[in-house]
Amino acid sequence: MRIPETVISEEKIFTGRVVDFSIRQARLSDGTVVDREVVINKGAVVIVPLTANNEVRLLKQYRAAAEKWIIEIPAGGLESGEDPDRAAPRELLEETGDQAATWQKLHGFYSAPGILTEFLHLYLATDLTPGSSNTEFDEHIEVMTVPWSEAIDMIRRHEIEDAKTIAGLMAAGLRLGLIGDRANE
Predict the structure, then answer these.
(1) pTM (2 d.p.)
(2) Nearest-CA neighbor of 51 among 133, 137, 151, 180?
(3) What is the DSSP letter of 50?
(4) How many Cα atoms within 13 Å fall on the side-chain side of residue 165?
(5) Residue 86's Cα: distance from chain center in Å?
(6) Beta carbons of 65 and 46 less than 8 angstroms apart
(7) What does the DSSP 8-state code read for residue 38?
(8) In this structure, what is the dihedral angle of CA atoms 156, 160, 162, 163, given to the nearest 10 degrees?
């Protein structure tokens, strides 16, 4: 498939701690020049931590942009050039206190490709050893442990509204045969 536009120029208009903002000028295949507003981010890791009893470790975290508490799977941003395989265990330990003996990379996806460059690397973490979390000074997090079926019901009841959490739980459920054709639901 032919790429329908070519970037002509890019002007960074804001540099932040987590994101940068740019205006890209692009030429469409018919020659028309358009401006694209782009939020640039280094990417992140997201983790579905699953206990030996098929319980999911979730976070109830206050999110300033949403102005409310959101239920999520653990996640964290990547540093420039950081290997996601190394970042995932760090983020799991930091946010839940858990260490996982077994890691599987499940998938990867863009969070909002219409405006944001962020790519999320999704992992399944099992054989968990619990410990103490070490959250950042400005994070407000409560760790929750819920049965797998309850986590899925929380999606059905719209208690889980976070896209990466919904996608992560669905991808993990498909991989493990807990949802889909192989499930006993």
Answers:
(1) 0.89
(2) 151
(3) B
(4) 22
(5) 15
(6) no
(7) E
(8) -20
Entry field: residues in the chain: 185
Query: What would the two tokens of residue 92 be?
Result: 């799991």
Report whether 144 contacts 71 (CB < 8 A). Answer: yes
Q: Which residues belong to the active site?
A: 139
Quick: pLDDT tens for 91-145: 999 999 999 999 999 999 999 999 999 999 999 999 999 887 766 667 678 999 9
Residues 6+ apart with CB under 8 A from 117: 38, 39, 40, 41, 43, 110
Task: Tokens for 144, please give them.
Answer: 């929750």
Handedness of CA 109, 112, 113, 116 (dihedral sign): negative
Q: Which two tokens stand for residue 84?
A: 């996601």
State the burial class of residue 100 (Cβ atoms within 10 Å of its Cβ: 0-12, 13-18, 19+).
buried
Token output for 62: 């206050």
Tokens 């992992």 correspond to 123
Token output for 53: 């009893």
In order of their start, the domains of the chain are 5-40 (no CATH), 44-176 (3.90.79.10)
